[in-house]
Amino acid sequence: MRAGVTGIVSESPEQTRAFGRILGALLSAPLLIWLAGDLGAGKTCLTQGLALGLDIPADEPVTSPSYTLMNQYRGRMNLFHFDLYRLNRIDDLDDLDFASYLDTDGVTVVEWADRFGELEGGGLRIRLTTLDENRRRIELHAGDKVPPDLVARLLDAWRRENPS
Fold this sequence. Notes:
Blueprint: E1 6-10, H1 13-26, E2 31-37, H2 43-53, E3 70-73, E4 79-83, E5 107-111, E6 124-130, E7 136-142, H3 150-161
Parallel strand pairs: 2-5, 2-6, 4-5
Antiparallel strand pairs: 1-7, 3-4, 6-7
């Protein structure tokens, strides 16, 4: 991992979902999460787990909003799930009223956050890197609006659930 970046290796899609679930369960305040990674790296998979951790009903399908651009889910905290893959210009975000979701009372997840570098900042940045068919490196970088102990608590909870 790069200096200043913390993370884990997920061995399967189920573990990637579990990592998201643990993160969601730890959240007690609004958070902005920027997700980056290649196509198929597990961004939506992680978001599905996050939804479970936020007590969004398991029978509510959490899917990539590639065509709708934003999906909203109701749980213990609202989840606003954006996908920027199909946007061509940063100005396209104005039509979605994107800025209003950056400081909301819920959790805002932005897939393909690295498409528009000027957007990144403030929240929790998560990069998923494909290692092989099932394994993913999940790197975390906490911005200035992330609770100071969130990443440490997340990694501790992950290690308790997945001892090596």
